[in-house]
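INTERNAL TRANSFER SHEET
From: sequence group
To: structure group
Subject: Polymerase

Please process the attached sequence and return the structure record in the designated field. Keep the field labels unchanged so the import script can parse them.
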Amino acid sequence: MALRSPLILVSMFCYMISTRDLIKKFVINALPFCLFLVAAILYSLGNLNAVDNVLGESRDILLSVFVAVFLLSCCDVSDDNRKLIYKTLKATFVFIAIVKVLILIFSVVTGVPMPLIISWIRDSWNIQMMSLGVEGTFLARLQIPLDSAVPFFLYFVTKELIFTTEKKYRVITAFVFLLISMLLTLSRAFWAETILFVGLAILFEAGIIRAFRIALVSVITTTLLLLLTPLGSLIFKLIDTRFGKTSMANSASDLERVWQNQMLYNSFIDSPVFGHGLGYFIPNAMRSITTPYLYESQSLSMLMTLGVLGTLVLFLLYVFLCFKTIYNDNNGRLKIIVPAIFLVMWVFSGSVNPLLFGASGGVIIFLTAKTSSLYKRDDAQDL
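Return from structure group:
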C-alpha cells in the first residue's frame, strides 16, 4: 500500500482531534459506510477471497468515504473552512497542471522523451501515471488518479469565472491551466466530462443571453486558435490520437475493454444478488498483478464483487450523504439536477477508468454534495 493513503488519514485525524464538533459529525456520517464495509468484508472472507485483496479494495472505498465525509464535516463546522477547501483544491489542481507543463517544457528543452520522464516519476514517487505517446509530436499522456476530479471541479471554476469581476485574470489563468491539464490526460472520458461540466456551469449560472455570448466568444476564439496558430495542428493530433481510426493503441484498448467487460458480466451473472465479495478477481482477466481486483470498468466490477444488493446499498449511502448535505445547505430545499448529473458522471467515469474510489473518488463525492454551496456568488470578493 502506498504511503500516501495513511498520510491522508493521519492528517485528517490530527485535525479532527482539535475540534469536538468535527469528530461528532465525522463519526455520524461515516458510521453507515463502516457498518456496510464490515458486513461486506465478513462476507468476502467467508467466500475465501484473499485477505490482502479484500482489505485493499475495502481501503479504497473507505478512503473515498473518509475524504468526502471529512471535507463535508469541515464545511459544516465553519464557512471559512468551505472557502479554504475551495482555495486549496484549486491550488492543488493548478499546481498539478503547472507540473505537467514543466514536464512538457523539460522534455522539449532536453530532448528526453516524455514517456521516459513519466517512468522516472512513476518509479521514484510511486505515482500511478498512464503513458501513451502522440505520434509525430513530443507529447505523451500525463494522467494521475487525482485528474479524475478535475472535470467536476471545473464546474465551480467556471462559476467563479462568471461571477468574478475583480482580478479576473487569476481565475482565467487557473481555468486555462486546468484545461491544459485535462487535454494532456489524453482521456476521452475526461475530455467529454470537461466539456459537459463547463457547459453546465454556463447554462445554469450565466443565464440564457450571457450563456449565448460566452458560447459565441468561445467558438470564435477556439476556431481562431485551431486554424491560425501552431497549437491547432498539435491539438488536432492529440484528438486524432484518441479518436482516429488508424490508432492501434485505441483499437487495442477498446478491444481489451470490451473483452474485459464481457468477462465481468459473465462473472456477475454467476452471483448476481450478493456478488463474489470484495477482493474477488477473474484469474484470466487481470488488469494488474499487484491489484488484481481493479478493472478498467470499475463500476461493472463492483456489481461482480458486491452484487446488485451490495452495490445498490453502497450507492444509496453515497446518494443519501450527498442529498442530505444539499438539503441542509439550501434550508430544506433540494436541488437535484446538477448533483444527479455529477453522480451519473462519477459512475460513468468509473466505467472507463479504475478511479471510482480512493482520494479522488472522495473529492468527487464531496463536490457532488456541494454543487450549490462550495462556491457562492458572494465569494467573488473573497477568493
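Handover comment: The chain has 14 helices and no strands. The chain has two domains: 36-77+256-383, 82-210.
Transfer complete.
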